[in-house]
């Protein structure tokens, strides 16, 4: 072997532990991303909450929420007769659609209240809600206009808790009002569609947004990842046909909220023609309060309004099914790149390169969420990059310290300890001149 070969071999022998330490650190992170997605999901979801919820979004003047209280304008319990009068008054404003975040599945029959409510629902396009899962009571009707391509992602159920037959016959359509909670109970996702006994139905937010935007139908399909097409807007959805939305803070909800009592008293602000109106309750006893990133007790009717607003604005988010592959590649390739820089730069330069690479990945994930609606984990791949650099720098520092100790020990065999100490701490130059004694 040549002298140059021996030198190169010696350099690799010294650097091999550094490289292996960096690769092991990046590999551990890549393994966690690929093999333990459920363990990292809660932290990742909280990070996504921050990523997509930083920007305040003004309320859409086309979307209104009418909150039903415990009492009507006369101080009596709010009943179906009052709901009928409420819908009649709202229909006079000629809205694009009225959505009921209420499942009218109880006390069916030809009572005067039910007949009055069915008659009121026939005055305007009213979309009734149904629940999945729930007590099985049949298949909703009428189905909204939706086209589903083969293998399109969606929920699937045998039956649902639906409104009474008279209300379904008077309505313009039926849509899903269920909102799934995450592992921590927070509502982050809205369903785009669900199959009930093989028939497709949309989520109520999707159906109201379709009518508000004047789109003829909704198309659900898959091209690698799932997607929902609403007019000219395409929204990414996950394997269950769900998309992520951003719940609004209480202060932002006030601008679009009207009390049902104020509508019945004719003291409510005028609702513009062609608006999307949701009717629901914010009362705890009605069971419509759900935890979200914006509030621990978020009325479901306002969550549905957030879905409508963001769909009409073309804003929705989804995590691609192959997101973990890109994250693993970022952790490994980024770690290898940083290792190369650490080996060729000073320790400070290597640390700066690792930090810059990690910040670059975070910036990429924010850009993809902001402009593409795609959610990628900004944390774990960054930890892979920084971890590879940190492990390499630590091993290199330890090797340097060990080499320094070995050199110092050999020098002490030939020179006084005091002189060696001065050379090591830099207070004495290596080149010493003679002294007169």
Could you explain the architecture of this structure?
It is a single chain. With 437 residues, the chain is an alpha/beta fold. Helices cover 46% and strands 16% of the residues. A hairpin with a 7-residue loop joins strand 16 and strand 17. The longest helix has 33 residues, at 3-35. The relative contact order is 0.15.
Question: Which terms summarize this structure?
Answer:
four-stranded mixed sheet, six-stranded parallel sheet, 46% helix, 16% strand, 17 strands, 437 residues, alpha/beta
Helix content: 40-55%
End-to-end Cα distance, whole Å, is 50 Å
What shape does the CA trace take? elongated
Radius of gyration: 32 Å
> What percent strand?
15-25%
- Which regions contain 5 or more consecutive residues with pLDDT less than 50? none
Order of strands across the main sheet:
6-3-2-15-1-14
Number of strands: 17
Structural class by SSE content: alpha/beta
Q: How many helical elements?
A: 13
> How does the major sheet shape up?
6 strands, parallel
Q: Would you tell me the overall average pLDDT?
A: 81
- H/E series: HHEHEHEEEHEEEEHEEEEHEHEEEHHHHH
């Amino acid at each position: 072997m040549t002298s140059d070969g021996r030198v190169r071999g010696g350099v690799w022998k010294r650097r091999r532990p550094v490289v292996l330490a960096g690769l092991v650190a990046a590999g551990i992170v890549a393994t966690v991303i690929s093999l333990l997605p459920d363990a990292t999901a809660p932290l990742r979801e909280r990070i996504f909450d921050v990523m997509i919820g930083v920007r305040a979004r003004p309320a859409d003047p086309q979307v209104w929420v009418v909150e039903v209280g415990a009492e009507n304008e006369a101080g009596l319990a709010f009943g179906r007769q009052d709901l009928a009068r409420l819908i009649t008054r709202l229909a006079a404003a000629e809205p694009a659609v009225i959505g009921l975040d209420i499942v009218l599945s109880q006390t069916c029959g030809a009572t005067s209240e039910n007949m009055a409510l069915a008659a009121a629902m026939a005055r305007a396009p009213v979309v009734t809600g149904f629940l999945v899962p729930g007590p099985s009571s049949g298949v909703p009707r009428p189905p909204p206009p939706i086209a589903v391509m083969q293998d399109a992602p969606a929920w699937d159920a045998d039956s649902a808790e639906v409104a009474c037959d008279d209300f379904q016959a008077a309505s313009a359509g039926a849509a899903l009002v269920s909102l799934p909670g995450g592992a921590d109970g927070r509502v982050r996702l809205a369903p785009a569609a669900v199959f009930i006994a093989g028939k497709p139905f949309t989520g109520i937010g999707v159906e109201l947004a379709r009518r508000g935007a004047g789109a003829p139908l909704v198309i659900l399909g898959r091209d690698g990842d799932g997607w929902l097409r609403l007019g000219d807007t395409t929204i990414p959805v996950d394997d269950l046909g769900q998309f992520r939305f951003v719940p609004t803070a209480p202060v932002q909800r006030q601008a679009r909220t009207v009390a049902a009592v104020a509508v019945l008293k004719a003291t409510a602000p005028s609702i513009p023609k062609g608006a999307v109106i949701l009717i629901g309750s914010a009362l705890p006893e009605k069971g419509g309060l759900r935890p979200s990133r914006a509030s621990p007790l978020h009325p479901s009717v306002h969550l549905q309004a957030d879905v409508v607003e963001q769909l009409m604005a073309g804003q929705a988010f989804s995590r691609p099914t192959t997101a973990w592959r890109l994250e693993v590649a970022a952790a490994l390739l980024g770690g290898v790149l940083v290792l190369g820089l650490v080996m060729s730069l000073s320790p400070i330069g290597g640390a700066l390169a690792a930090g810059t690479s990690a910040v670059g990945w975070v910036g990429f994930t924010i850009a993809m969420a902001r402009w593409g609606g795609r959610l990628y984990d900004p944390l774990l791949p960054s930890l892979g990059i920084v971890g590879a650099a940190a492990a390499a720098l630590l091993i290199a520092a330890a090797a340097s310290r060990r080499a320094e100790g070995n050199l110092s020990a050999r020098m002490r065999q030939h020179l006084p300890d005091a002189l060696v100490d001065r050379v090591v701490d830099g207070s004495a130059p290596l080149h010493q001149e003679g002294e007169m004694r």
